[in-house]
Structure formats: structure tokens, C-alpha cells
Design brief:
Blueprint (H helix, E strand, L loop, with lengths): L11 E2 L3 E5 L5 H8 L16 H14 L2 E6 L2 E9 L14 E8 L8 H15 L5 E7 L3 H9 L3 E9 L5 E10 H5 L1
Parallel strand pairs: 5-6
Antiparallel strand pairs: 1-2, 2-3, 3-4, 4-5, 6-8, 7-8
Amino acid sequence: MNPTIDLSNVILKTERLVLRPWELSDLDDFYEYARVDGVGQMAGWLPHKDIEETLRILNSFIEGKKTFALEYNEKVIGSLEVKKYNQEELPEFESFACREIGYVLSKDYWGLGLMPEAVNEVIRFLFEEIWLDVIFCSYFVRNSQSARVQEKCGFRFYKQVVHTTRFGTEEITNRNLLRREDWEK
């Protein structure tokens, strides 16, 4: 089951990051990384064509109340979404409180360990404050960086699926999961 989650008033802090709700003032930072080739494609979307496209998506983040802005040194460098998982694809989890996370990071900050830091804090929040039983996270098999983030954060392989991206390509995708009892160990 997908419990209701509203992140509009949630602020999480790590050693180097602030995970917080998106604001309209984040538009330029968001556009700066979202327009770069190679960033969005790893998450299933194309680089933003113009700032108007970024504004539409930014507004959807604000209205959706399920996506954190990742702030590093007072600059937004990525996002982390806590979205509903596909209950039709995973009916065996119907009696468990579950959500799926997805994330994107500016190319300028790849390789610094920032995304595992953010993901680990969101995992803590979802297990300790929302009381989820299971968190899902997926990656395209060609995305070794995302695979490594999930491995560092304790996710384990569950199944392989084919995902159709927003721009119509099909990606072989590894769906991973992390159970609360495994995280607590």
C-alpha cells in the first residue's frame, strides 16, 4: 500500500546537505542542471529545452509535495522524490506500507558521495518517522552510478523489469528494495 506522504513542510539535514521543499526561487539552479545532456536521461527524461519547461516541472514538484530539493552550499543541485510504487506490478506488497524513491544530481557534483548521503537520510526519515515497511528504488542497468548509490544505501535486487521512459525508449531496469528490518540491523 502507498501511504499518504506530504513533504511540503519537511526539512532534513545531513553533514553537507539540506533536503527541503522546492521553492520558485530555485528555478535558475534547477534549469542549470536539468538542461545538461546526460543528467535526465539517466532518470528517464530528456534535458530541459527551455526555462519554461523547468518552471512547469518545478511547479509540479511544489504542488505534488513529494519531491525534495537537494541544497548544497546554498545551491540546489538535485532532487529526490518519494513517489508511489506500482502496486499492480508488485501486488505481493499490498499489506505493507511502501514507497519508491528516485533521484537526480547535477553532473557537476557526481562522485562526491552526496547522493548516498541524501538517500540515507531519506531512508532514515521514511523508516523512523513515516514507518514504512519497504522502500523501492530502481535504476537503468546502464546507470552504474545509480546502482552504486543503491548498493551503498543497503538496497538489494528484487526483480528486473522493462521501463518505458517519458521520451518513449525502453530501458532494462533493476528494481531494488530495502526492508525496514534489514535497515535496522
